[in-house]
Amino acid sequence: MAAEMHKFHKHQPQLERIEPFVVPPWWKRITTVVKKGEEAGKAHHDRIVEDFGHKSLIFYTDGSGYNGGVGAATYQPRQLTSKFVRQKLAYMGKETQSTVYLAELKGIHMSLEITLAQQVRKFTRVDIFTDNQAAIASSAWPQRQSGQWLLRQIAEQLKALQQQGINVNIHWIPAHTGVPGNEAADQLAKLAAEPPAPYTTAVFALRSPSPTVDSVAEPTEPTGDLVAEPVVAPATGYATVAPDSTGVTAPPALETATATAHPALEAAVTTVPTAASATVTAPAHARRPKAPRAPRGPNQPKRHTPRGPLRPTTNQAPFTTVAAQRMLAKKTTRQRWIDEWESAPHGRVLHHHLPKPEKATLDRYTSMKRAVSATVFQLRTGKIGLKDYLWQIRRTDSPQCSCGDRQTVRHVLLQCSRYNALREEVWASPGSGWKGPRPPTSTKEIWKSRRAKTAAIFLLRTGLLGRFTRAAVEDDPPQEPPQRAPERAPAGASPGLIQPSSAPA
């Protein structure tokens, strides 16, 4: 097993270490809200935006597993507390290293990261909307689980914001319900899952809605490092918006967000530029000095960017999660199980009924009595005490039935004329699982759970299996209630006397 885990973990970052605790018992939890149902969740979102939009910084986060990669994104629409539209993406590695759950946590982490970077704050609370309830529960109370290294960072961010008097709230929002911010985060997460994806913050502040972005308005206060950095890909120059071969286009919130946006949340209406249509100019005080360009190779295309040389970076998770490795081990083991079942020389009778192995097969026997479940299993494998099989293993002199045909499973269940009346009776019973006017005529029709049980009961009632009788399929006799143990006399009582109970009669 250790060799197999080494094989899974090969060429991956260091495996994460899970500690018993992430936060102390006295750690102050944040407020989390999870409503039941899509309508309730969406109504709660609208109420939060309407009641607290004037003093809250609102984020939408999402994680996505797409084309073998895992990406995370957070999206902050333009609102009363911020004139900027911010979006941040993170590539979390392949599905063998990260999970969508970890990407959801990363989206929350990036939202808090953007919040802590604000130097001039017009908000007193932060509201983060995500569609992953597991990430909400883990952020509120981190425990011994996968992704602790990220949960520890989130806990430190929450503590810092609490010390600054900022109230952080994480809400559940149903996915794909038409909320522009949530849809934008979903599209951005898919873009981030495409390796190599950039880990970049894009900030857009518009003077007025327009079909193209010609400039970025000068902000009235500095915004730190979170300034206009459109996500750029080496091939196209504008990976956030240019459609690629997979058909992924610009996020809806960056194109037509105001179509259904909440009145209290003014989202930006933009068509993010392509290299041929427009450019984005960063604020003068936020521009970085140009770095010397590295020499371009002979086959490397020229890159056009709004702000000097292209410097995309990836933010692959520093650890390989235990959850991802566990999923990989299960997937690999299941595929090996399928391959061995397909090529094995034995079990071909059962393979005819079960072409692919499945764990649900075991559940078919849990509700059956022992005699019935054993008979069902023997019927499926063909290794049962009928003359055809007994003759093959040299336990009887002839494979013939008393009617003259070979006594196979198919013959007894479907064809033997000696049991026509019993066959009609059993398959016509209400609990047989068969609705046809006549008994089944093919073995494929009887291998479902309830029908297989009926077939086993029919075979047991024929008496061909001598070690099982009809009593094995009848209802269990009622069990007598356990007798109550005699009461012990309390200390100090006379021997042989039972003291009356203090309970009312």
Automatic annotation (TrEMBL):
CDD domains: Rnase_HI_RT_non_LTR. Signal peptide: none annotated. Transmembrane segments: none annotated. Residues 53-194 form the RNase H type-1 domain. It comes from the Eukaryota. GO terms for biological process: DNA replication, removal of RNA primer. Residues 276-318, 470-505 are annotated as: Disordered. It holds the Pfam family RNase_H. One of its GO terms (molecular function) is RNA-DNA hybrid ribonuclease activity. SUPFAM superfamilies: Ribonuclease H-like. Belongs to the RNase H family. This is RNase H type-1 domain-containing protein. The lineage of its organism: Eukaryota, Fungi, Dikarya, Ascomycota, Pezizomycotina.
